[in-house]
Amino acid sequence: MKLTSTFLVISLSALANAALYDSNSPVVTVTEKNFRKEVMDTEHLVALEFYAPWCGHCQRLAPEWNKAADNLRGLVKVAAIDCDAEVNKAVCGHYEIKGFPTIKIFPPELKPDKKNPDMVTKRPVGAYFILISPILPSPLPSPPLPIGWQALMIQPPRVDYQGPREAKPIVDYLLSMMPSNVRFVKSDLSGKASKKSITIDDFLATENATLPKTLLFTSKPSTPALYKALSVDLNERMLLGEVRNSELAVVERFGVKNFPTVVVIPAGGEGFVYDGQIKMAELKEFLEKYAKEAKAKGGEEAGAKKEKKEKKEEVKVEFDPKITEITTQSTLEAQCLTLPGLCVIAILPTVHPDDPSTAQTHATTIPLLETLKRKAHDLGTPFRFMWIDAARADKIIDNLDIVRDFPAMVVMHPGKKMYRPFIGAWEEEGVGRWLEDVRGGKVRSWSYKGTIEVVEVEVENEKVEEEKKGKDEL
Fold it and tell me: What is the average pLDDT value for the chain, to the nearest integer?
């Protein structure tokens, strides 16, 4: 009996000293070895519990901490470090942990100090503890701090979480502290506007050719935590904006009818509505397809990125300067109507031998289209350029209400049944700027009904060519 009691005491002691969070837990296990990666080198808010396995309060907190971590997956990093483990004592000593459990909130970013290249800083969100230190050594030093380290306190002076040790209040507190890179998009900035407010035109113009964007149209009074987290995950790779339903001009501009609605605007492309589930995993996976590639941090990752880039360049499509002529309905469908993205269709006058200006229009317009196509290709924009004789475009002109003043131009998005005719001088800079505005959403598109049809007729300039060919033949 005594042996059994002794064995029970030993078993309970071993259980008490076992780590509270295993590999299946949603809580991130932090050690001295991965401290920098998990806590410092992240743009997410980090809540770190300093604990000891034998501590009764820590054991009671563990299931609530697990619940909080599960509820905050992808939003806030909920982590824990075992201060009873010998390898972690330097970290716990550095943060002067006096009792267990202690919960500290770490701000979202670790940034190199531009004035002091050998220093790194943690940027606070609201009011937090700021750590300014040399690049973190391993192992971390224990207090007193070596020369060059400073611990600065700003209001509020305490950095420990002092709220209830239950999942819900912990989750609510951490959600309220989440960082956000979301911009508040408005039609104009008259009246009250925060520092994060931006006009829709400036939002769309931000690095227009290279930076993809996403707009969340919402009726909620505050930014959803999911969207805040995405703005952190995609920081510098995609610009995220939020449009409240009260911004009627912006809502109308994008034709939004329901809330919430997510509109994705690829780099150099036209916006489209995301029709999937608005949940963290699904939406993040979708946006990653359009976001800029994450920057490599060196080593094997950088090499892999370079190799991937080289492979991508190997399969790069060779530029074809030819501007396709639309002569039949099947050609129009193959080149425009059945493909995603934007079609640029130039309508040119039929060439008449007795009207030299018609031939001159062809001679100047086709090279201009080739130049614009080259620029679009180099920028990776989704325009497809083509031209059609006015005689064959008769139904297109009527359907889209295009002025019969040639050359004419129209940009179409067949998938959305939207279009916009060009009005202005036919010169490279003006047309190029207009196309950029169309692509960026600065120029409002119009909807059309019915089908876009080609009139399959033999045009005058083809008759002339046939007559010449007949005269030259024996």
Answer: 79
- In this structure, which amino acid lies at residue 377? H
Q: Where are the beta strands (DSSP E) in 153-211?
A: 183-186, 197-199
DSSP string, 26-44: SSEEE-TTTHIIIIIS-SS
CATH architecture of 16-176: 3-Layer(aba) Sandwich (3.40)
Backbone angles phi, psi at 336, to 5 degrees: -140, -65
Question: What residue ranges of the chain are covered by domains with CATH 3.40.30.10?
Answer: 16-176, 183-288, 324-462
Q: Which pLDDT score, from 0 to 100, does residue 158 have? A: 33
> Which CATH class, in words, describes the domain spanning 183-288?
alpha beta
Overall average pLDDT of the 431-452 stretch: 84
Q: What is the arithmetic mean of pLDDT over 277-293? A: 91
Instruction: State the pTM of this model.
Output: 0.54
The dihedral region occupied by 216, where left means phi > 0, alpha psi between -120 and 50, and beta the remainder, is beta
pLDDT digits (tens, 9 = 90+) for 305-330: 445 544 444 444 577 889 999 999 98
401: alpha, beta or left? (left if phi > 0; alpha if psi -120 to 50): left
Whether the link from the prior residue into 156 is cis, omega within 30° of 0, is yes
Q: Residue 117: is its pLDDT beyond 80?
A: no
Q: What angle do CA 63, 67, 68 make, to 5 degrees?
A: 120
> What dihedral do alpha carbons 13, 16, 21, 25 form, nearest 10°?
90
Closest by Cα among 75, 86, 94, 84 to 36: 94
Which option is the CATH number for 324-462: 3.20.20.150, 3.40.30.10, 3.30.428.10, 2.60.120.260? 3.40.30.10
Half-sphere exposure in the Cβ direction for 408 (13 Å, CA)? 21
Give the position of tokens 């295009």: 402
